[in-house]
Design brief:
Elements lengths: L13 H11 L1 H14 L9 E6 L59 E6 L1 H10 L5 H8 L4 E9 L9 H14 L5 H16 L3 H20 L10 E8 L4 E9 L6 H19 L4 E9 L3 E4 L1 H6 L8 H15 L5 E9 L8 H12 L5 E7 L10 H7 L6 E5 L5 H18 L1
Parallel strand pairs: 5-6, 5-8, 8-9, 9-10
Antiparallel strand pairs: 1-2, 3-4, 6-7
Helix pairs in contact: 2-3, 6-7, 10-11, 11-12
Length: 427
């Protein structure tokens, strides 16, 4: 028998309970998020959604009595079942059918129920990045973004104490005291010193005049406060949209017969990370998919990742297509251009010189960043590819890395953009 507590959580308890559940079922959730993200479009990778995990993934630890000792139990009796009998699930359409991925109940099958978990965009992205061994610092950088900011907008007479403008308040108070001729503390101290001297020399007339003057100064001091409420000023802020540029992301991938599904999966994960990275920094991000064998063409995302083609490999065809699209639709003055290319490194030997010229004279001067990811099978000892040697001769050239397993993708991605950011900071 299972007892399900459906009472509402007390106020403020829902979030800790949810976080505790996500930690407990973290391994199963990460596996589910990985499976969902593999089939999810690149533009939707940062969104939340419902993931399905097996019911065994939410089991909680419990205490059981040991096998030693005597135990007494009081059980209700019946005429149909004995202890140890299995009770079949009811058949029919009355809601008794279980919904699971097993063989069904009542026939001895080992069915397994499913459990749906709704994840927010932040939770989904965190689990997706944790699967790639994302450090906390980098995850925070990817998870936080603002499209608007606050800017100074002068001063106001009311506001929060935290926004008190001390210098402006004191300046107003000083101006008011000077205008109303409030006696200064040092002037009052000088009069009191003169009064003591007059009393010592027993000059009664001078002492009386000084006492009268001191009383007048005292009245004016009390009547004119040092800081008046009309002097107080607070810093005023108002929301202001931040100037956010737009970016276009080119995804270029070799889809010839030498590219296996494992290689395409690694390429897709790299493209996903780049899209999330750009989306957090630009308000508008467009994605262009270019696939090529010996010919290149712009396609939609589904065709880009799923359609299979045969043929040779000519990288220059993809570079020409990308340059053509840039000239027609994305002016350099209006767009930040990022290009990511994934390939196994194969290229026709006669095409390398043409690819070098297109990169050096065409794409590299136009784009903000060009990343080349060379993918290969795990534990591969393939020598340096012809395309790698071609790109390596360019100075300056694209940022290049080689990966063979999915776990290497995010460290490589972080290294690529860390070098770029450090270069920007030094300049």
């Amino acid at each position: 028998m299972y007892v399900i507590d459906r009472r509402l959580n007390p106020s403020g308890k829902s979030l800790p309970n949810r976080q505790r559940f996500l930690r407990r079922a973290g391994k199963v959730l990460r596996e589910a998020v990985r499976n969902v993200s593999a089939s999810r479009p690149i533009r939707e990778v940062g969104e939340g959604g419902v993931v399905i995990i097996p019911a065994r993934g939410i089991d909680e630890p419990s205490f059981h009595t040991g096998s030693d000792g005597q135990h007494g139990r009081v059980l209700p009796g019946n005429k149909e079942f004995l202890e140890g009998d299995r009770i079949a699930r009811p058949q029919g359409s009355g809601g008794g059918k279980g919904k699971g991925s097993g063989n069904g109940a009542g026939n001895g099958g080992g069915g397994e129920d499913e459990f749906k978990v709704a994840l927010s965009a932040e939770e989904f992205l965190t689990l997706f990045l944790e699967d790639l061994e994302l450090p906390d610092l980098e995850r925070r950088k990817l998870s936080l973004t603002d499209s608007t900011g606050m800017r100074r907008a002068g001063y106001t007479k009311s506001g929060s104490p935290a926004n008190l403008a001390v210098s402006r308040t004191m300046r107003n108070a000083l101006s008011r005291r000077m205008a109303l001729k409030r006696p200064k503390p040092e002037d009052l101290a000088a009069l009191e010193e003169a009064l003591r001297y007059a009393e010592e020399v027993k000059d009664e007339m001078q002492a009386a005049r000084l006492r009268e003057l001191i009383d007048t100064h005292g009245v004016r001091t009390r009547a004119i406060p040092y800081i008046d409420p009309i002097d107080i000023r607070y810093r005023r802020f108002e929301p202001s949209p931040r100037p956010i540029a737009q970016a276009v992301m080119f995804c270029i991938m070799d889809v010839s017969g030498s590219m296996t599904e494992h290689m395409k999966d690694m390429a897709k994960r790299f493209f996903m990370l780049l899209y999330v990275f750009l989306q957090k920094r630009y308000k508008q991000v467009e994605v262009v998919f270019i696939r090529h064998t010996d010919e290149a063409k712009e396609v939609d995302e589904k065709t880009f990742f799923e359609s299979r083609e045969t043929g040779g490999t000519r990288v220059s065809s993809a570079l020409i297509e990308a340059q053509k699209i840039l000239e027609e639709r994305y002016p350099v003055a209006d767009w930040n251009i990022y290009i990511a290319q994934a390939s196994d490194g194969d290229n026709e030997s006669g095409d390398n010189d043409r690819a070098t010229a297109l990169m050096r004279d065409g794409l590299l001067p136009l784009c903000q960043y060009f990343a080349y990811l060379e993918v290969d099978e795990p534990h591969s000892d393939t020598p340096t590819s012809s395309l790698w040697k071609t790109y390596d001769k360019l100075d300056p050239g694209p940022a290049m890395r080689r990966v063979t397993t999915r776990q290497e993708i995010y460290p490589v991605f972080r290294e690529l953009f860390r070098r770029r950011n450090e270069a920007l900071e030094t300049t």
